[in-house]
Structures are given as structure tokens and as C-alpha cells.
């Protein structure tokens, strides 16, 4: 199974995204494509246009989290059509969560700069569950609680052989910072394996902001990589299991 996650920056350079999707071998035979910051162009969802560029046999679902400076800011999932039915797609809110462990400094920050609306998309079948996540920009504990909200939702669903969580964690800062350690600890406690652990850069600032996690029947052999495509401030991130 081949997975890609990509924050496409509102599709500002959607033409370059579509060219990459239609021409680069990394996208051929893709099973799952998780998008963040998808938007609308020409009255059509970006996910619809990208699914068409992948070729026949793909379905898509796009959900808007908020309007940001007049643009739809959406999560989307594109999948090989036999994996899910449309009625198995749901939106999980990552906003208005209980945050009992925020420090005083972080509470002050989040009052001064209100958090953006964030969501995750959940798709599931009897064999597979997928989440497309996009965490907020601000707040270490705030982002950790959003990640835990996905883990909680996962734990409350019926068991499936394989779960995938992919997307933009907005983990600005060196990989050794407390936020990465805490997110990795939360993932480990939930039985998640980070396929992208070995990657060091997924953003043009040389930061690592994006990740792909799996739980369940994970093969011993798997790999992850990025492609240098200047269609967004993020790089497309791939994993294969």
C-alpha cells in the first residue's frame, strides 16, 4: 500500500500540483492521498481535480474546516475506489476540546490569538481506518490534545486490522523539542508506529511538520520518502507498507 500526505497551501500553485501528480512516478499506483489546506478553484474542490489527475478509479471527499482570508481551508482524502464507500467518510472536530493541562503562558497565547478551526477526516471499512489530520499552528499542549482527540476517536471505534493517521502536525521547531517527544510518546502509548520517523524535512524551512502513523498489522519492511516539488511550502510525503 502506498500513501501520500501533502499540505498544498490552498492550491495556490494547483497547476504545479496537478502536473506533479500526473507525471511523477511516486504518485503512480497511489492507494491513499491525504490533503491539507485544499481549497476550491473554478467552483470545483481541489481534491476532485487531483483525483482526476491520478487517473481512473479514484474517489474523493473534501471537508472545509474554516474560511481563511476568504479561501476554503479543507482536509481531503482521495482513495482507490474499492477501499471505502462514501457513506463511511466522517468529520472529527479538533476544536473546542477540553484543555485541562495548558500552562498559563499557553492559555494567555491562545486567548490573544484564538485557535483556528481544525478537523480530521475519518474513513473506514472492515479492514482499514484512515484519518487525515491538520493540527493548529499555535500551542504545544493544544496540538498534543488535538492529536490525542484523534487517538481517542480511534480507540472508541470497532477494531480494524490497520489504522493510518496522516497529515500536518505543524510541529515547528527542532525534532528533539518537547512537542515531538510528547506526540511520539502519545503515539507509542496508542500502539502507533511512525512510518516517517526517519525523515528530517517536510517543509521548505527545513522543518519536519508532516507525518504518517500506522497501527495494527504493520509489516516489518516499510519505507518513507519525500519529493522536492515546489508547488507548496510543504513537500509531498510518501510511505509504502
The general outline is globular
Strand order of the largest sheet: 5-6-2-1-14-13
Could you say what the CATH topology is called?
Answer: Deoxyribonuclease I, Chain A
**CATH architecture field:** 4-Layer Sandwich
Low-confidence stretches: none
In helices, the fraction of residues equals 10-25%
Query: What sequence of helices (H) and strands (E) makes up the elements?
Result: EHEEEHEEEHEEHEHEEEE
User: Could you tell me the radius of gyration in angstroms?
Assistant: 17 Å
Structurally, the number of domains stands at: 1
The count of DSSP E runs of length 2 or more, i.e. the number of strands, is 14
Q: What characterizes the major β-sheet?
A: 6 strands, mixed
The termini sit apart by 5 Å
Mean pLDDT: 90
CATH class bucket: Alpha Beta
Judged by helices, strands and strand pairing, the structural class is alpha+beta
Strand content: 25-35%
Number of continuous helical runs: 5
CATH superfamily: Endonuclease/exonuclease/phosphatase
Question: Can you walk me through this structure?
Answer:
The protein has 241 residues and is an alpha+beta fold. It has one domain (2-240): Deoxyribonuclease I, Chain A. The protein contains 5 helices and 14 strands. The chain has helices spanning 14-23, 46-54, 104-112, 140-156, 178-189, and strands at residues 2-7, 32-38, 40-41, 44-45, 58-68, 71-80, 89-93, 119-124, 128-134, 162-168, 193-194, 210-216, 223-226, 237-240. The protein has a 6-stranded mixed sheet, with helices on one face. It is globular, with a radius of gyration of 17 Å.
